[in-house]
Design a protein that fits this description.
Layout (H helix, E strand, L loop, with lengths): L3 H16 L23 E2 L4 E2 L22 E3 L4 E4 L5 E3 L16 E2 H10 L13 H5 L41 E7 L10 E6 L4 E6 L10 E2 L4 E2 L9 E3 L4 E4 L4 E4 L9 H10 L13 H5 L8 H4 L13 E2 L5 E2 L2 E8 L7 E6 L4 E5 L7 E5 L6 E5 L27 E3 L3 H8 L11 H8 L23 H8 L7
């Protein structure tokens, strides 16, 4: 008598070929969370633009060397713009008072921005909302550059489609005061215990948590607003623990390293680490770009409220002892250069722990106090190389802590609509093909029930791996790039 395992294998193979006839029957799910590429098109070393390096050369593996879903917009001619990648529709101009100028008079407090969404009517639509931080960040364009003035800067948003102005210097603002408000309130607090709300600054290319209510000098904190509609599922993750040290997000079609690298590296070494990583049988890992890494931030979590990093618990995040001697969590490098200042010596990172800074209390007193100034989930930037000791009180107006040696969490796969649909339909190894490797992974959990997500094999999300899942896999068999 043949072993039971062989019997099961034959039965599975028979079912596979029977169900191949259903190849066009199962529909693919809507790609709700496509990560649009950063639009960074050039390469850099530690300080300057360079010719893009070849595989194996130093600085290989940076943002511009991996293409994702390219930015694509449609001007609808009615004051709205549709993002053809994310499916979101946007208010084209932040000119809220409709006086033809974008200035300080168009800014709203957080409370006003939230309330204004319910009564906002544009182009015949009345279902506008204040965007989530992930929705708002989808518009970030890293072909931008933050110079020393508005004249020497390039906005971090596509101004061919979206109206934009820098801060209103005639009204006493800085030129970089172009912060846009999201709906994401920080679960922790910033500065001296203030409630905060996350926003994107399209003038300087950052995400920060800003005081929700009280701004500089005690005046109300106000923001530009760009309302959104459509695709209400955008930014929602669906993580699958593959049981092999990797995590797949079925909504983005990206596979992630479950553990981080465990120690700090400068940017050059972070790129090299990612390019050389072999994990779970894959050798095509890379350092994620800023928008990819941001996609896995969990804004319901923070060190002060959940005693964790701002990331789903299915990931493992190394704890650190921060500059103040407290337990915290690292900053993580991205492959994206942040053109901040006179050269290209900074790269973007995501703070999965508190985004600390040294604030002088009282102001101008010389008494520097370390505190969470921008919140867990902020996107800031660090010098790509150098000595952190050269920045004893950080850098910038909030004294942003400078570490330089940041952690790494690698990624593989492509966040495109095509690949996203295949991941939902059987591409279990995120290579944008449904083939024998995926079938082998699927077969591990055949006829399993009550197995959670069954390492991704439960394609229909009904709690078991059965003929319905096999039908869905077979509908995409041998289909891919």
């Amino acid at each position: 008598m043949k072993p039971e395992k062989c019997k099961n294998s034959k039965a599975i193979l028979s079912l596979l070929f029977i169900y191949l006839q259903l190849i066009f029957m199962a529909g693919a799910a809507r790609p709700d969370y496509i990560i649009v590429d950063t639009n960074q098109l050039t390469c850099f070393d530690n300080s300057n633009e360079i010719t893009c390096p070849a595989t194996g050369e130093v600085f290989y593996g940076q943002d511009s060397q991996y293409d994702g879903t390219q930015p694509a917009y449609r001007d609808n001619g009615d004051g709205t713009v549709t993002d053809l990648g994310t499916g979101l529709m946007w208010q084209q101009s932040p000119d809220i008072n409709n006086d033809g100028n974008i200035d300080i008079h168009d800014k709203l407090t957080f409370a006003q921005a939230v309330a204004g969404a319910s009564s906002f009517n544009l182009a015949g639509y009345n279902d506008w909302r204040l965007p989530s931080i992930k929705e708002l960040y989808s518009l970030m364009d890293f072909s931008g550059a933050n110079g020393t003035s508005a004249m020497t800067s390039v906005p971090y948003i596509n101004t061919d489609y979206f109206d934009f102005e820098y801060g209103d210097e005639s009204a006493g603002e800085r030129f970089i005061d172009a912060q846009y408000c999201s709906s994401a309130e920080y679960v922790g607090t910033i500065f001296d215990g203030q409630p905060g709300v996350f926003g994107v600054n399209f003038a300087d290319g950052r995400i920060k948590c800003y005081p929700r209510d009280t701004g500089h000098g005690g005046s109300p904190m106000d923001f530009f607003v760009r309302y959104a509609r459509d695709n209400t599922a955008y930014g929602t993750n669906n993580f699958i623990d593959n049981g092999d040290g990797t995590i797949t997000d079925r909504t983005t079609a990206l596979m992630w390293q479950q553990n981080d690298n465990g120690s700090g590296k400068n940017w050059q070494d972070a790129l090299a680490y990612a390019e050389s990583l072999e994990l779970a049988g894959y050798d095509d890992w890379r350092l994620p770009n800023a928008k990819e890494l941001h996609s896995i931030v969990d804004y319901t979590r923070s060190p002060s409220t959940t005693s964790s990093a701002a990331i789903d618990p299915s990931f493992k995040c190394t704890s650190i002892i921060d500059e103040g001697g407290a337990t915290n969590y690292p900053f993580f490098w991205t492959s994206t250069t942040h053109k901040n200042g006179p050269d290209e010596s900074y790269a973007a990172y995501i703070a999965f722990g508190e985004a600390l800074g040294y604030m002088q209390q009282p102001p101008m007193s010389g008494n520097h106090v370390l505190m969470d100034v921008h919140g867990a989930g902020a996107q800031r930037s660090d010098p790509k190389s150098g000595n952190p000791n050269d920045y004893p009180y950080g850098h910038g107006p909030q004294g942003d802590v400078i570490r330089i040696y940041n952690f790494v969490r690698c990624v593989r796969g492509q966040s495109t609509a095509f690949c996203r649909e295949l991941v939902d339909g059987g591409d279990m190894d995120c290579d944008c093909n449904v083939d024998a490797i995926d079938f082998a992974r699927f077969a591990r959990d055949w006829l399993q029930a009550a197995c959670g997500n069954c390492r991704g094999a439960d394609l229909t999300d009904d709690g078991s791996v059965d003929l319905n899942d096999l039908t869905k896999l077979c509908s995409n068999w041998l289909f891919g790039l």
